[in-house]
Queue: 4 jobs
Job 1
Amino acid sequence: MELKEKLISSFMAFEGQIDVNSDLYDVRTSAIKNFELKGFPSKKEEAWKYTSLNAVLKHDFTVFPKHDSAIEFKDVKKYFLHEIDTYKVIFIDGKYSSFLSQTTHEGLDVCLMSSAFTKPKYKMVMDTYFNQIANKDETLTSLNTAFAAEGAYINVPKSKVVDKPIEIIYFSTGQENALMVQPRNLIVVGENAHVQIIERHQSLNENPVLTNAVTEVFAQKRAIVDYYKIQNDLGSANLIDNTYIAQKQESHVSVHTFSFGGNVTRNNLNFYHQGERIDSTLKGITIIGGKQHVDHYTLVHHAQPNCESHQNYKCIVNDSATGVFNGKIFVEKEAQKTDAFQQNNNILLSEKAVINAKPQLEIFADDVKCSHGCTIGQLDESAMFYMQQRGIPKKEAKALLMYAFSNEVIESIKIPELKQRITQIIANKLGVNLGFDL
Amino acid sequence: MAKYTEDDLKVELENKEYEYGFYTDIESETFPAGLNEDIVRAISKKKNEPEWMTEWRLEAFRAWREMVEPEWANVHYEKPDFQAISYYSAPKKKDKYASLDEVDPELLDTFKKLGISLDEQKKLAGVAVDIVMDSVSVATTFKKTLAEKGIIFCSISEAIQEHPELVQKYIGSVVPQKDNFYAALNSAVFSDGSFCYIPKGVRCPMELSTYFRINQGGTGQFERTLVIADEGSYVSYLEGCTAPSRDENQLHAAVVELIALDNAEIKYSTVQNWYPGNKEGKGGVYNFVTKRGLCETNAKISWTQVETGSAVTWKYPSCVLKGDNSIGEFYSIAVTNNFQQADTGTKMIHLGKNTRSTIISKGISAGKSQNSYRGLVQIGARAENARNFSQCDSLLMGNQCGAHTFPYIESKNATARIEHEATTSKIGEDQVFYCNQRGIPTEKAIALIVNGFSKEVLNKLPMEFAVEAQKLLEISLEGSVG
């Protein structure tokens, strides 16, 4: 059975478990209808011109895992940012693991979507925010909405500065031959509040996984949100990550995406401005090899005056991997004095590596400063020569240059332990040990 | 019923005569509206074309029938009804106007601003000219010089008759009949166009221009141009004219093919200033053009365009850099005002080793217009050391207009070096203030700044063209500064 048909028929089974009278019922049914109509995106669509899901969709994915799986903390410790204390929301094969998690209701809510869906005390927040900013036309987002059942729910009240970072980790154990999970996160950050979030998807063995995640982030007035996405999964994992961010005036939201692992990774990152003097930052480092495919699809929608957005994506592609960057800056008529900047630098290391880039500007306001730059090139030969001449072996010299190339993004990580971790991952990825912290 | 008086009769007669006059004017063989195989055959027969040409047209027509009009461009317009168009109309024999006094004064005003001589004005506006104009004699000597060098420069119908081997070999080799919807339509029904062949090692001594090819003045709405530069030759070709042309044909779907063989160089400059519609956005020409050049080893093709006219422009002059060490260049200024829409850019397809391309695109939008740059830079897997530099700058004037960039960059080779940058900005208040302060009125200051903004492209135009193009920019943006 094709995955699409399977999903539609599983929805009927899923429908039986949920409350038909709830408001969500209509949201879900219209979402599944949209998916039924549009199906999985194909390369014929402009937004998916460079990324094909066909090979991924061939697997016979289980939509609802049959087994309850447990994992030992010591086996997965390395995936946590264990050097510091954090709040943790951990899921195993799409199900909440209370054993590994560390949630809270003191001063802020760090808990589960499943309780947010059912418990009356969350109803008001859910009514105001759930599925409000997510694109209802987009087929994969609709698919997620239809099945949305579990994920992280974070509500930071007004003026609360969250004392430690929040980690959201989705493990897949590989108990099923092939598993599809659809986590749904909702993050509401109140006025003047500040929060740091780290999200990670990790599979524990080579069985294929398809994750179709949707995250909605609402940043109220003057809120500060730092969001880090670590994508360093095994070669059998596929990730479609849809993130929608709504910002109110003077809020600062930054999203860093580190794509090192996974088979096919698609990041849809959307920023919508709903106030003046907003600052949005989108940064990413992609280092891939083998047959990996990473596609960054970003949209910054400037709808109000005096806002800023900064994008900086660095991509290093080796072997026969493919890197895609599709960035769109949309400036509405009202959004005067917009300062939008977009930069995408790519390095191709091998003959079969492919880079496709499509940086776009759509501008309807005249008093704006918008620019984008995009480069594709190689490592500087003279710099390589210089280092080799001074006794640095070729491999290390290469690694140093690549590290320098991505440093602009690494530097802006605000959690020092995370910065160290990312540096470590990069060093591993490049296969070098320089004997000092890169 | 009112009495039928002599006066009434007189009025009736006058009208009738006018009617007749009118009929004799267009009687000149206009085909019935609509398009089918018979019409295609008839066009081909009319032009006395050989069998292979008829077949070629029919093949294109059959392909066209299967195609749908593309919708991906960032333009909105009412789609033309292809069955309501008459696909063949012989060039008009009668002049449109008897004297300059009858010509639209607005048009004359523009001529004056462009500094076009009176005789030329008459010719451009379609006024009867009795005296032998300077340019005619220029054209004659011109033709003589060209013939001496072995250069063939004639209309494409003439070329089909006289040089069928060249046409057959090259037509459709760069833009195949099935390339796209409008190229297919053009291939099926093209009425005329230019043909140019530069023999081996010849450097064309002058700028070739359709403007000088007087006898083939109005080439109609489906123009086909084929330029072949044989090994080691050089040619600079000018198309269009800075003077505004009023054209009753709403749809223009031209195809231009350039072939630069080994070591050859073609420089193709266009100034397009068709009727953009009135200030409310009514009327105006739809300009859907397919332009493409093929570069063999060490060859170079350079496109320069100044686009100020047309209600809707849809145009992507491209270079296929097939040979090693070949070079493609694209310099463009696109100005849109009022309700104009332009979706224009280029494609650079790098196939050969050490190929290089440069793209400089300047978009200026004013009024309520929309101006888009859409470009593709593609590096093939075998294009070692390919190099591209692209720069697209947009200038916005007023908050009703839009500027968009859609660059596509695809690299399949690790040795490729690609750089792309784009900026969007408005004319700085401080810049205008600086000029004002020194006694330069705002309108002049804007013209000055726009000129500076477009300098990189204007510099690439042949000299006489550049001067006129500069004035044209000024005129196109007139009244857009509030």
Note: The mean pLDDT of chain A is 90.
Job 2
Amino acid sequence: MLKINNLHANINGKEILKGINLEIKAGEVHAIMGPNGSGKSTLAAVIAGKEDFEVTEGSVELNGEDLSDFAPEVRAHKGVFLSFQYPIEIPGVTVTNFIKTAINETRKAKGIAELPAKEMLQLIREKADLLEIDRKFLSRSLNEGFSGGEKKRNEIFQMAMLEPQLAILDETDSGLDIDALKVVANGVNKLKSEKNAVLLITHYQRLLDYIIPDFVHVLHNGKIVKSGGKELAYELEEKGYDWLK
Amino acid sequence: MELKEKLVSSFLAFENKGNIDLDSTVHAIRLKAIHNFEKEGFPTKRDEEWKYTSLNPLLKNDYSLFPNAEKSVGFKNVKDYLINEIESYTLIFIDGVFSSFLSETTHENCDVCVLSSALARPKYKMIIDNYFNTIANKNSSLAELNTAFVKEGAFINIPKNTIVPKPIQIINFSTGSEKEVLLQPRNLVVVGENSYVQIIERHQNLSKNTTLTNSVTEIFVHKRAIVDYYKIQNDTNESSLIDSTFISQKQQSVASVNTFSFGGKITRNNLEFYHEGEHITSNLNGISILNEKQHVDNHTLVDHKSPNCESHELYKGIYADKSVGVFNGKVIVRQAAQKTNAFQQNNSILIDDGATINSKPQLEIFADDVKCSHGCTIGQLDESALFYMQSRGIPVKEAKALLLYAFGNDVVEKIKIPQLKTLISKLIAKKLNVQLGFEL
């Protein structure tokens, strides 16, 4: 599904990604771990199409299609979803209105008619229940005044609504207490299927107790220095990253 | 002939043309006003209050001062500019002339009618004597000019203890019956003790010809009365507006003026609040969304004279292309006005490199036990917020619009008439050139 070939990316002339190779197949969960500044969030942003980064070499392909010329929204329409480490606050736009707009713009791009209001509402309720989101929460301004846990839960809610092929969860566990982490992880697990894939980006092994990865990769200094199964995460937890440098 | 000379020399003709039934005190006021205007002339950029707005491009035109009688204008021509979804009183003026056919007035529990009849009828003499031109006469040559040629406009007189059951819409249309027209509507609003009224005012050019409107409104808000006033400024690029609104408030009254500026060539809003009692609240809100070469200047004054009063001022602006915004917010807290709370905020977003905002907060505080604050931000759209929305499949154009909507939302939220809120949301969406699948 996702194929990253020798990916190099710069920001302001500084090379952050220095030749990443990664392949993710449908139905798989991959985790990328690594110390601060290793390029984890950059990799997530580059896949999602953030224009601050310049791809100097290599490619990102989704289902065999090179994404490099596509704007972030087009990548989203093709099935890429990025859950943000720091979701943006948008006062004045409710959670419901935001997700409605996102869904209908995606449908428009695919040439499908807008989802009728009633079905939309039903879908919103269903997905909100899945993530144990209070209905009142849906009429609040997007992320404005949300707690860390509410913001992350809201990210996964949006993911549930958009049903992406590839979900990239950037530090979704940061700022979550253990109960919130369980709810979020539970939501992700319920959304997982044979047709989609998840890329987890995290510092800690903690999240991986709840969302169990098929593969773990260690990113260091812009390169994947080690890959393995879920046991690699435990090894990292125990030994830290120094032994890999 | 220059416009000023033309106006001064037309004054006598105007005075002799069917206005002889006017009360003699009004005659005296008008005479004094034309003298003041003749002495002062139009303001220039040398005048500190007009530093960022030049009237020169407007004064070159050869305006018709007394346009021809109204062309045939039917409901279908004007209905798009009215809020039709609600019951309302409407006062519609076509090229400065009242259209009784299109309007709905009342004298039942309150007077919602026209100034010409109030000026002429003995019944209203006392109100005219007590209020007319008592606050509009504060050293503004443009207000003087309006006073000199005062003829028509809205007259709203709400007795005490009256909740006006429906909003009042005042709409001034120009039809382009002549190439260049100068209109000078004059409104007088008196709201009695414990009364409540909602007013919507709009100026609209129905043609491609040039219109300059020099409008003056005086509003008197008595004890514990509440006034919500909305100004919709979405005129054509051939139309300019100088709007001077003067508000005098008595104790415990609440007056709010909300200004929505989306169109017009040059728009200058002079909005002045004068406090005459304690525990008064004044709210000033505005949002300007401009493009092309549009120019909007919001000049506000809140004069705190008495203790324990508050004022809240929030102006937002979104400027694209080569548009220009001006915000000059003056707050005076006089020595007697202890325990004043005065807050002022002006936030702007510049979308294009050619756009300009001149923002000038001015606080003059003579009392020592007060809370006053002012803030001013000028920024651009938040790139990370745009990326966030794009990553959810919202195209960049819609994402920008949504962010701008969100930026202006706290001003839109102040609208207390739901149908008006819908209209403003639609006008904003249209101005931002997007269709959003929801209303705010």
Note: Chain B is about 20% helix and 35% strand.
Job 3
Amino acid sequence: MTEPCLRVSDLHVMYDLGSSGFARRKRLHAVNGASFEIAPGETMGLVGESGSGKSTIGLSIMRLIEPWSGKVTLGGTDVTGVSRKDVRTLRRRMQMVFQDPYSSLNPSMTVSQLLEEPLIIHRDLPKAERMKMIGEMLESVGLHAGYAVRYPHEFSGGQRQRIAIARAMILHPELVVLDEPVSALDVSTQSQILNLLKAIQAKSGTAFLLVAHDLAVVRLMSPNVAVMYLGEIVEAGPSGRVYDAPAHPYSAALISAIPFPDPERQRNATRIILRGDLPSPLNPPSGCRFRTRCPFAMAICATEAPPSVPVEGGGTAACHLHAHGPKLGGHSILPFIAQKMGAA
Amino acid sequence: MNNAQPLLDIKGLTVQFPSPSGWLTVVDNVSFSVGRNDIVCVVGESGSGKSVTTQAAVGLVQPKGGRVTAGSVMFDGQELIGASNRTLNRIRGDAIGFIFQEPMSSLNPAYTVGEQIAEVVRRHRGASRADAWKQAVAALDRVHIASAATRAHAYPHQFSGGMRQRVMIAMAIACKPKLLIADEPTTALDVTIQARILEVLKELQQELGMSVLFITHDLGVVADIARSVVVMYGAQVVEFAPSDQLFAAPRHPYTAGLLEAMPQVALERGHDPIAIPGTVAQAHAWPKGCRFNPRCVHRQDGPCTTQPIELIADGQGLVRCALAGELRLGLERRA
């Protein structure tokens, strides 16, 4: 097997919340042992609710947040082991696009300066060469080369996100972390950006880690997906398998909650409505973290953390239902849910 | 009460806001109505005028520097445009309840949620403290806050985002309004929480026999909740139709374009989403003729580009498209 573009092994991230008074020093375990790989030129989607730790994973891969433990390698190079100074050279190979194009671009720099900055830092090129690259990059994200002299405020949200993508892509990185790249955009421009990202990837062979809460966007963009809940990956695998035959009750609930633009279908849809609320990550439930909201929780779920089991059709799921109770044995959870909901 | 009359009837509403280059028309001759026991969704993108329309209807644009230059808003037999602040203050929060996108900024962090809901009941209903508190707890219970009597003593920061939004709904329905205006109430929330909120809203609408005016940009949410849909683009209503008709056979190319651009629809049909080209029209530079024409794949020079387009009847709804008689937009979607 060829070396994956990105390999994340047993990543843990803690946020130190400090101590107050006599209280014990508090740490928030934001990511609890995440492992996954992305092949070169591929996209993996990372979905989950806010507070699930999906953005934290993206940031710690970039070393914008220091991981607590675990290992991240980029094309075989250790990212977690290098000094902070050497991270900078690594950033030439991995870049990030943020959610809000209004706050992620320096308003006092022209588009040309914004795109030139990474070239100046990482590449030793004559000015004329840099300008040629900037012109070409702008064209490839669908912006007129003449826009190079303008400032970010002169552009709409969608155009700004094109600039942010151009800035991330100009060094031909191996990996780009896309953190909610379209969620701040208008509906009609969202799909422009999604199609642009696909086209750019097809040409450049850059791998994407797509962090998003919009499940339809993730499925559209990513052949593989990982579902996060309270700092843990609860299910992962090929998108088609995870969406059509989820093996974890949380993935099933998430997917059933995507509203489809067809009133008749919405009326007849069986939705798994989750009761209760996301528990505090400061004090996660014992055993399986999802058990407090799981409609199918059993006694064992409170005592033991569920192991990851292989799922038919690819990927894994961490849920006791596969070895206990109905003993799903790595199959889709949907028939079990239909039976339960039919009985109720 | 005359039940034949709509609960809320907006006619020719026009709203302007000041800009460095003079007054800009951000809501242009907007008309639609909300029946009794009805759920109407207003869809549109940023700058379409969807939020300003509803704010203007209840007298909330003047404090922000805007002005209503024309139109009428009849609510339950009463004209709201030009009504005194006293009248509007009496109606807002009582017969008309509100929920907004960001629940944290609409709740006072210094008071318990029970106190804040009880305050609304006391002000509008003149209820005693004890009675108002009871009604506040009942309202929290209605939105499925577990152990409402205890949680009423909690402060907003002690609730999660989804629960805060349910607290906001509890506050909005505490006085049993006839109309609930919900402005992007689920936009900042995750899908599972969103599904829950939509379920609660539909349930309350039935229980209380109220009407809901729901503003959103998400057509998936619209399909879930709406009976009728108002589509806005460039400060105008471009389509107003029963939900089933709108989704099965959209009459306006913008509506059809929004549907085609949705990832859910593209996935179903096994191809990339069909993006609407260009960017959203801006109030300082409305295109001549149809405001959507620079982005429209069906555009015809002449009919679409010279004269302003009128809203005309089509099917069971209204559409603002010069080619409305010729285009068959929904058909390829259904095939």
Note: The CA atoms of residues 161 and 212 of chain A lie 15 Å apart.
Job 4
Amino acid sequence: MLDSALVDALRLSLQVAALSTALVALPAVALGRFLARRDFPGRSLVEALAALPLYCPPTAFGFLLLRAFRRDGPLGPQALGFDLDLLLTWRGAVLASAVMSFPLVMRTARVAFENVPARLEQMAASLGASRAQVLWRVTLPLARNGLIAALLIGFSRALGEFGATVIVAGNIPGRTQTLATGIFDALQVGDDARAVQLAGWSALLGFAAVWTSEWFLRRSRSARA
Amino acid sequence: MSGVLELQFTLPLSGFTLALEHSTRSRALGVFGPSGSGKSSLVEALAGWRRGARGRIQFDGATWLDSERGIELEAARRGVGYVPQDQLLFPHLNVESNLRFGCTRDEGLVERVLRVLEIEPLRARDVATLSGGERQRVALGRALCARPRLLLLDEPFGALDRPLRRRILPYLVRAQREFDSPLVLVSHDATEIAAVCDEVLVLREGRIVARGAPSSVLTPAGELDDGFENVLRGRVSAVGASSASVDLGGVVLEVPRTALNVGERAVIAVRADDVLIARAAPSGLSARNVLPARIDELVRGPAARLRVSLGAQPLWVELTEAAIDELELAVGGKVFVVVKTRACRVLASSASA
């Protein structure tokens, strides 16, 4: 049944995943668009750097974020003159999830843009459309399904995020505990029933997000064919 | 006054270099040649879609390319209406939204284009549901709606089979008359070029190997794969129950009536191997056209043929060398040209200007 601790974890997980997806959407889609159409020296370096969260342990990123935002860190209160209040708060969980889901969103968006035939954009420009109009009237509508899929994949990645989140935001029930960190907590105190419950909800939400994203990806592929 | 198109540029392609030098005031320039001769690259260079050309391209006083001065005008600023082989219709927009894409104002224009190209019934259709011929008309319409200074048509009917190409050709001729936009038409179909263009460049491996009026350049000696068609122009002088008379300028040709009306201009195709030659006026023939003519040119050999004039227009006739010998045909000789009404195909007609 839904006890209040579970409801808290569920609500916080959805809130963190939604906000981290919103945070990551613009920069990831913009970089995906840039990499889909531009070739420049050092491109592979940018690609590899942007993919870093995919192949580095999340705990390493959690550690880096912790170092960056702690009191004497380069983005900490001493350096900035004010406190971003990210450590041990749900806002920290949003940041950690955003960083970890960035490469997935960016790569899926890049593929969505690559699937838009460049000649259609060229035709739009030939018909007098400005760059912004080409983007707005041709590129984005044609990439739409792929971009929605990218955001859903980012959302599901954020739902499952553990390693970086637990280091930056901690695992405080009712305040920063998500489904993912809650499972760890339940295991540590030997509450298997609770772990199963949390795992079940995680699987259900993750499945719904990924399944929906697959549906959009399929539509984006069939629109192309 | 027609704008001058000046081409003086080179463009390296895989295998050879496209090297063109030509200046023309033609309102309808045809570019003819086998596939892989550089025709599409020429159009893409004109459209500004293919970079890397060296030299000069000017149209109507505007410089599109001048590599010495570092000028290469981007596609959007050339004001061309490009209709590529693959049409490139926007798949997320319906027919009308495709037409309106490049149309900034002038409500009347879109309606006129819809009417002239007979695509009004398609206006709300998803472009994915259009047939090949419909797609071509929509692509042509979209280019026209952008009020281009120059229309660039790259094998606009290339993907269609021959009967369908012939059904669509009248729309192009009609659009040309109605919207009066100068155009460059790339095609490997000589009949198409002869029906639409007043000047033609023949390309081979990136070079111009012949240029001039289609009637003098596009002859049976050219690289014509499936039979040469004469293209004749005239005015409809009478319309009967099943046939119509087309005045070619002193000589009247009986053609199938189709949708012709008296006073209209008509473009007629006659295959060179559908024409008979007689030394004396034959009688008791079913053929409706028996026209006196004089032989202007005679070519012997495996592709034997002769040229006569109908009105002032050349008509090529293909025949065997044995027939030439037996009839003792020679340049200057008087003959009768025999053509069945049904062998004349009406390619296009339009109200006279």
Note: The first strand of chain B starts at residue 5 and ends at 12.
